[in-house]
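Progress note, project year one: complex with manganese (II) ion.
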Amino acid sequence: MKVLKQKRIDSTNVTKNPLLLEIQGDYPGKYGGPVNINVASMTEEQKKQYYLGWQNNRFNQFVSDLIPLNRKLDDVREPECRNVVYREILPRSSVIICFHNEAWSTLLRTVHSVLRNTPSKYLEEIILVDDFSSFPHLKEPLENYVKKLPNVRIIRSQKREGLIRARLLGHREAKGEVLTYLDSHCECTEDWLRPMLQRIAENPMAVVTPVIDRVDETTFKYWTFSGPAINIGVFQWDLTFNWGPVHRERRKAIESPVDPIKSPTMAGGLFSIRKDTFSKLGTYDPGFETWGSENLEISFKIWMCGGTLEIMPCSHVGHVFRGSSPYSWPKGMSELRTNGIRLAEVWLDEYKEEYYKRLGYVLGDYGDVSERKKLKKDLNCHSFDWYLHNIYPEALWVKNVVIVGPLMNKLSGTCFYIQPDDTLAMASCSMREPLLYYALTKTGEIRIDMRCLAAYDKIIVITCSGNRGIEEWTVHQTGHILHLSSNRCLDLNQDGKVILNKCINTPSQMWSFLRLEKPQKK
Ligand code: UD2
Ligand code: MN
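Model obtained:
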């Protein structure tokens, strides 16, 4: 991208609205700083509010409420970003924010941050899509407040649609040439939209995301990622999204800190796309319920059907990441699996087997996907094999798998399990949980996706590094799993801990990969 010296453009459209003016003096959370509170010294009433805030949102609403809606953030961009020359004429964007029972302060801080950091000439409108919330503050109070803001309107679903169909409501209503989606707990930073619009102006099939920074769910501190700390989006074979490092080969293609970074997938919530491009690609599968899979669907589709997906390093938006979802799932968590199966059926070709193995081939009723398959055919899209070879070759390790399945210890009858914090434990083998599925590769790795079982002074799971000294294992007929470089065997001690031990003939050192046979068609 061309970089030249140029004076900064006026980047705000809000100087005349008193609600949007910057607050002077000191206040909690200024410049993205943390807000620490002492719960012990709170009144009983405050404590009640504090715990309720966590319960309703799974983030610290109490702290969010203390921070002004107009808090000023540091300019987190790389210095080079200030010198990028943008086209004078760029397409205008609708900003679509879907929410279900969002807190007042996080929702409106999202809206304020858009208005304060987007020149009005690029902002067609802000559409708030209420996905059938029940919180009273999101009814009339929100309506009255929004009337005082420029260019913001609310549309409401008539029943709980889930975030995917809520986004489709926004897509239908939007007037902008470009659509920019945001979650309802974001904070946009200085000039966040222009880099994305510019990329789309250069290539109408470009889909772009900002760098998604982290607004701490406890203190609301704004943590930014830049340079090598920027991760790309990837996926795992249980069809979940993950962040991944930019490997050396990819890095070579990036010449300057302002260059777009190609990303195999997107996290899902924050991106810009031309409205007609989104339509042409068949938007989202409307059969996706509540949450999940739409992010991988759109990612695969963009790459496989003629588009590009990139992260714009000069565009930064913060998002409150949280550990679990606070809202109800009308049809239960099994929707998540059904979404995944619909995704795999349509887009993964023969690779869907990898996912189904991990589900123990229990697919259930996932509805009709023939329309989606037709769409893929009509768009003349590349195969998933093409996607892997050309867009995400790091995932091709799956072709070298000897066996995949839960790894059971003969003595205990329990299976090896990596807890979400990467520590190891044993668990019931019948638990159908992706973190239970290990793959032995032809090169002697024991993998769970991009992570490898490794041993030096302890046994841990690390991002696979290709370091054979610590990551190479041999599985023997006897069931022994030998760690090659230390010449010791995987063992389960009396406390139920997985350790390395001198190899002897004992059941605690015997392991087997449970085979997951594909059921025969009746
Ligand atoms: C991530 C994405 C999210 C979405 C999801 C997969 C980011 C930062 N977030 O999860 O946008 O792609 O992965 O589906 O990339 N909502 C509704 N109706 C519902 C449920 C949620 O409108 O039934 C809203 C919700 O208020 C929020 C947005 O959808 O604004 C995303 O939900 P989330 O914040 O729980 O998802 P997140 O960030 O964990
Ligand atoms: Mn979110």
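The first helix runs from residue 44 to 57.
The chain is about 25% helix and 20% strand.
No further modelling is planned for this target in the current period.
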